Amino acid sequence: MSSKRIFGLVGLNGAGKSYICAHLKSEFEYDTCSLSDAIRDELRANNMPITRENLIQMGNQMREQYGPDVLAERVAAKVKQNRLGFAIDSIRNPAEVEALRRHIPGFTLLYISASEATRYDRLCLRSRPGDEELMASIDTFRAYEAREREGSETMQQLDKVIAMADAEVDNEIDSNLSALLERLVLDGR
């Protein structure tokens, strides 16, 4: 049996990246990870609370100190050893995409999209730790998002990463996500 595909997921806040990872895990037995896990580990090691602001600042600090691809480099070895399929969430810098493509043959970057209204509603419903800052108002949500979309080389650059995507997954409420993911997964076998 051949291996399944290795997917990377990029998308704006509340687009459904974590949901798609969970779906790939439960329906197709994929392993999953988030590049943000390395940032969370660093925050814990420094006894810092895991807030969106701290995640952004620590991620930027790690990219400045170790290079803009540091998070992807930390995940690549683990992913390369996996033959069951893998989904990597929280890709936010072009250097991360380049590192994953360099280390993982057949790596496929998926842009997970949904409207602003859908994404904000999802964010408010999920109430994940760290989301409180984003949920304050739609204007706050937009301000955080604008900052994450266009940063310097060692910061988040979501617009550039989205432009590097191999395919788009429309994750609006009425889309047929299961059928689309099944097609993507089966094409990789």
UniProtKB/TrEMBL annotation:
What single Pfam family name could you report for this chain, choosing any that match? AAA_18
The record's listing under InterPro entries reads:
P-loop_NTPase
SUPFAM superfamilies named among the record's database cross-references:
P-loop containing nucleoside triphosphate hydrolases
What's the superkingdom here? Eukaryota
Question: Which PANTHER family does this one have?
Answer: DEPHOSPHO-COA KINASE (PTHR41930:SF1), UPF0200 PROTEIN MJ1399 (PTHR41930)
Query: What name has this protein been given in UniProt?
Result: AAA domain
